[in-house]
Amino acid sequence: MTKETLLQTLEAERLKIGGETIVVAEDRDATFMISSPGEPFQVSKVVKIEPRDAVLCLETVKGERFWFTYDLLLGLRIRAVKTAKEHTTGFGR
After folding, report:
1. Least enclosed by CB within 10 Å: which of 9, 13, 22, 84?
2. Within a domain: residue 76?
3. pLDDT tens track of the chain, all 93 residues?
4. Does residue 90 fall inside a structural domain?
5. Where residue 12 sits, what CATH number does that domain have?
6. CB under 8 Å to 40, separation ≥6 — which residues?
7. What's the whole-model pTM score?
8. How many domains does the chain fold into?
């Protein structure tokens, strides 16, 4: 994936792009698939994305930072997650 493709994808998901850092909203769950020998490597629960010129930095909810070149990025998954306010008690829906 190229940097331009990544930015278009993130823009389509309406993520907050501020300066050089893109923040993933709390109601979203972002997972990036990275190429590696054997099986693809997944970076889950990404909260900050820093698309630099030659490399991509991903920061997880645990504060872990991963750096990759764009050619290793296979794809990403962004999905909505329920917040605590959306959960109901009991059996009614």
Report:
1. 84
2. yes
3. 999 999 888 888 888 776 789 999 888 999 999 998 888 899 999 999 999 999 999 999 999 999 999 999 999 999 998 766 655 666 655
4. no
5. 2.30.30.520
6. 33, 34, 74
7. 0.81
8. 1
